[in-house]
Amino acid sequence: MSAPPAPGTPATVTPGIKQTAAASPLAGPAAPAGRPALDWRLRFAALSLIWGFSFLLIKVGTHGYAPFQVTLGRLLSGTAVLAVAMAVKRERLPRTARTWGHLAVAAFLLNALPFSLFAYAELTIPSTLAGICNATSPLWGMALSLVALSEDRPTRRRVAGLGLGFLGVLTVLGAWQGFSGLDLGGTAMALLASLSYPVGWIYVRRTLAGSGSSALSLTGSQLFLGTAQLALVTPLFTPAPDGFPLWPTLSVVALGALGTGLAVLLQYGLVTEVGPTTAQMVTYFIPVIATAAGVAVLGEQLSWNTPVGALVVLTGAALTQSRPRTTRATAPGPRRPSRS
């Protein structure tokens, strides 16, 4: 959550993938890697489960802690995991003040803001609805990229996907019933959190691509800055917790260490091995797993329009991520450079 990213986005260089967990589309020099010991399909399944369960972990965390405290614990645990990974790989921190300044903005847009909004949203809405709202991130990314990224031109299929996706959102929310029984404030916060991801991705794409630092170094530094931001804000709005209840504490630690730290490392490996197109398919499993976890573990109620609307949202999101097929030349001769 993507990261996603998480939770979760969605670690790729294209907007629209859920980086719910903390990842950002930071481009850096690729490091040589050996053959992974674990098959990529198993890592793909693990990433889907981790990010899918992130919304359940947020809900359980809010049973014992204030939303800002959940986010601070999440970022602290995730930063610790990436710090260890950076130390093992001997990654260097970014050196220029300009890079750190842009990373501070990215940390707010991709970590501090959406993580806090999801935590506040789940005070009043089910984790299943939060997971489905998160799936709208590719739709927001598509809409924003048409305005902000001149090279990302619309096609009929992608525009149709955008319209279909938002129709799915209205179905999930039960618009024909006047949004009866729906907490509009919590739902709005979850949708705003999903919007924050593509805004952050576009910002990073414009400011940090080709910075010279590795993606791991940039993301680890970004999480550190997000942790610092929450460490400053949290004491101003929430009192210190009276205790450390077991299950909420374990949920927050797991949310950070797994859903924010380990998930980023898994996604980097998948993008390197199978490419961003295949890796981003994890986006479409997250709301399914989040819904199943919320119903099975937390006993959340599910009406017919929730899964139906979620399916429509995912179909629309998939269409917005489609790219025109390249055709092979039928006659010999020099090839024209293609535009994407």
Assembly status: single chain
Taken as a percent bin, the fraction of beta residues is under 5%
Q: By helix and strand content, what is the structural category?
A: mainly alpha
Helical segment count: 12
Radius of gyration: 19 Å
Order of helices and strands: HHHHHHHHHHHH
Q: List unreliable stretches of 5+ residues.
A: 2-25, 27-33, 327-340
Using the alpha-carbon principal axes, give the shape.
Answer: globular
- Report the count of strand segments: 0
What's the end-to-end separation, in Å? 28 Å
In helices, the fraction of residues equals: 55-70%
Give the biggest beta sheet. Answer: none
User: Kindly state the mean pLDDT as a whole number?
Assistant: 82
Question: Can you give me a brief rundown of this structure?
Answer:
Helix content is 64%, strand content 0%. It is an all-alpha fold.
Describe the structure.
- By secondary structure, this protein is mainly α.
- It is built from 12 helices and no strands.
- Helix 4 (127-134) packs parallel to helix 7 (184-207), helix 5 packs across helix 6 and helix 5 packs across helix 7.
- The longest helix is centred in the last third of the chain and has 29 residues, at 246-274.
- Residues 2-25, 27-33 and 327-340 have low confidence and may be disordered.
Which descriptors apply to this entry?
single chain; mainly alpha; disordered C terminus; disordered N terminus; 340 residues
